[in-house]
Amino acid sequence: MMEWPEGNKVNIESLGKSSEHGKNLNIKSVKLLGSDSKIEFEVNDDGLNISDLGSKTGEFAHVLEISL
Q1: Is residue 1 part of a domain?
Q2: Half-sphere exposure (Cβ direction) of 11: Cα atoms closer than 13 Å
Q3: Under a CB-based contact definition with an 8 Å cutoff, are residues 62 and 17 in contact?
Q4: Which of 20, 26, 28, 50 is the most buried (most CB within 10 A)?
Q5: How many domains does the chain have?
Q6: In percent, how much of the chain has pLDDT > 90?
Q7: pLDDT per position as a tens digit, 11-27
């Protein structure tokens, strides 16, 4: 992410169950690199939904590690 999302929320549509790219994925965990916060997530037809990223880890790009 090039900037911190408003409300600490993210929806990645391309990883949703109805997406060509996400339909066969089994996402096991999501981490915000540089943070110890536990990231809660849900995968549905609309995308990979993260409702709270926790604390901002810097002023530049932010990276999510998505484990399958």
Answers
A1: no
A2: 9
A3: no
A4: 50
A5: 1
A6: 85
A7: 999 999 999 999 999 99
